[in-house]
Amino acid sequence: MAERNESEWSRLSRRTVLAGTGAVTLCVATAAETLGSSPALARSTYKDRKRDITMSTVTTKDGAQIFYKDWGHGQPIVFHHGWPLSSDDWDTQMLFFVHQGYRVVGIDRRGHGRSSQISDGHDMDHYASDAAAVIEHLNLRNTIHIGHSTGGGEATRYVARHGKGRVAKLVLVAAVPPIMVKSPNNPGGLPIEVFDGFRKSLAENRAQFYREVASKPFYGFNRPNSKPLDGVIDNWWRQGMMGGGKAHYDGIKAFSETT
Fold first, then answer.
1. Using one digit for the tens of pLDDT, what is the confidence trace for 91-130?
2. In whole angstroms, what is the distance from residue 95 CA to residue 107 CA?
3. For 24-80, what is each residue's pLDDT tens digit?
């Protein structure tokens, strides 16, 4: 990418993009501390309950098919992923907690991962209502919600609008703030040109844009003495390219300008 963009990535790595290795450690440590003592280790977390062998989806009122994965038993934990990824980004944490006796649920946001690439509704209100559709379908109660980045905004909106009587705790890991873009009311925010640059790069060459993000700022691989991990980069890129370009394009506004 151009030198100007390289400089942008360096700045963004400090302000808007979570170093992924830290996220894994922080999420497990923070959530484990927040949750307290784990339930007794389940002897079998994968085969006790009968479930459909077809792909697990819920259809929303506007026709979006929302994919979810549902593992284990016990108190439920719902994981909300960041942009432009999928619930696969939480696999490490989901495996950790399912082996501590929790039931873990990961949801692919509309237009992301295995959920349908619907044209519209790529905003926090729809993200939250989609999560509510899955949670009501599974009849989850006393649920812990963990959200990273855009998923933090989604989880917060869900808890505020749909979570009455169902939520035990909310854990936010490097979540988006209420608004990221600079304005008279938010002078410390990032200029709109930064997010316009995201949209431009995505529209021109989404595959290369995602490769640049994963191999540089997202995991801190652009920092001195860092060692890029090809598998980690490839997995991030894979998740991003599973989703839809329009959903990801519209999602930039959702995570940067939502109040």
1. 999 999 999 999 999 999 999 999 999 999 999 999 999 9
2. 15
3. 434 444 444 545 444 433 333 334 444 444 579 999 999 999 999 999 999 999 999
Evaluated on CA atoms 195, 201, 207, 208, the torsion sign reads negative
> Can you give the residue ranges of every domain in the chain?
3-257
- 3-257 CATH: 3.40.50.1820
Helix and strand numbers, DSSP H then E, in the chain: 8, 6
147 and 176 Cβ atoms separated by less than 8 Å: no
Angle ∠(79,82,85) on CA atoms, nearest 5: 100
How far apart are the C-alpha atoms of 90 and 96, rounded to whole Å?
A: 10
CA distance 56 to 60: 13
Report how far residue 104's alpha carbon sits from residue 237's, in angstroms, rounded to the nearest whole number.
24
Model confidence at 8: pLDDT above 90? no
How many Cα atoms occupy the beta-carbon half-sphere of 256 within 13 Å?
23
For 120-142, b where at least 16 C-beta lie within 10 A, e where not — what string?
Answer: ebbbbebbbbbbbbbbeebebee
In sequence order, what are the beta bridge partners of 104? 71, 77
What are 188-239's pLDDT values in tens digits? 999 999 999 999 999 999 999 999 999 999 999 999 999 999 999 999 999 9
Tell if the pTM clears 0.85, that is, is over it.
no
